[in-house]
Amino acid sequence: MREDKESEPDSLEDENEIALFRDAMSGVAPLPTANKIVEKLPQPSAIPQKTKYQGHVPAEDSLSDHVSLEIEAGDEWSYLGPGMSRRTLRRLRRGYWGIQAYLDLHGFTRDEARRELVAFLDMCNQKSFRCVRVIHGKGLSSKNHEPVLKTRIGNWLVQRSDVLAFCQARPEDGGGGAVVILLKA
User: Fold this and answer.
1) Is there a domain that residue 29 lies in?
2) Closest Cα to residue 168, out of 184, 154, 158?
3) For residue 35, what are the contacts with CB-CB under 8 A and spacing of at least 6?
4) What confidence score (pLDDT) does residue 151 get?
5) What are phi and psi of 128, to 5 degrees?
6) pTM for the whole thing?
7) Are 136 and 177 in contact (CB under 8 A)?
8) Chain Cα centroid distance, residue 162
9) Distance (Å, rounded) from C-alpha 165 to C-alpha 172?
10) 9 belongs to a structural domain
11) Which letter, b or e, does each residue of 54-75 get, where b requires 16 or more Cβ atoms within 10 Å of its Cβ?
12) Which of 8, 17, 32, 93 has the maximum number of C-beta atoms within 10 A of its C-beta?
């Protein structure tokens, strides 16, 4: 019985609040629809593993495995090309440019990954893509649970003249297992 008595005042309060709300909204009309079309941006297309470029051999694979620039394998790493402003790197980190394509290198050997990366970046240049993502993985399946491709990809990228900057992807874009690359326009 006590529960019924407690619920009665609540229902009266609810009815009073509903009546007050309806009274307050009695003269309100909906806003006119704007002459705007909300365009949903398409998701970048995935490049399948080991299929799209498997038979493609780049004309010149000039990326060296010899470390030309020391890049730490820590969580936060980045590169900013000569003459580029720090603002560019901040914008890249914050997602200012939308990712137009991505390459997933999970399961690739070092040599396969290098060939795929070169072919992917060449294709991106041909299509005039500005911002792309390369997923290299975190290395959890490798020996000693260390990323094998992460530092190599960073070193390969700094050797390319079309790469202006790169940084670790935002968490929603792959975090420490991916890199976002800004290419020349």
Assistant:
1) no
2) 154
3) none
4) 80
5) 60, 35
6) 0.62
7) yes
8) 19
9) 20
10) no
11) eeeebeeeebeeeeeeebeeee
12) 93
Number of domains in the chain: 1
* Domain contains 91: yes
45-47/101-104 β-pairing: parallel
User: Does 17 reside within a domain?
Assistant: no
Mind listing the pLDDT tens digit for each residue in 95-117? Answer: 999 999 999 998 888 889 999 99
Each residue's pLDDT tens digit, 18-44: 998 889 888 888 777 777 666 676 766
Tokens of 26: 């009695």
Q: Using CA atoms, how far apart are residues 181 and 163, in angstroms rounded to an integer?
A: 7
- Adjacency order of strands within the sheet including 178-183: 45-47, 101-104, 131-135, 178-183, 163-168, 78-80
Q: Cα torsion for 125, 162, 50, 71, to the nearest 10°? A: -160
In terms of C-beta density within 10 A (0-12 exposed, 13-18 middle, 19 or more buried), how is residue 76 classed? exposed
- Could you say which DSSP state residue 182 is in? E
CATH number at residue 91: 3.30.1370.110
Print the domain residue range for 99.
34-183
pLDDT tens digits, one per residue of 142-151: 666 666 788 8
First to last CA, the chain: 75
The answer to whether the CB of 92 falls within 8 A of the CB of 166 is yes
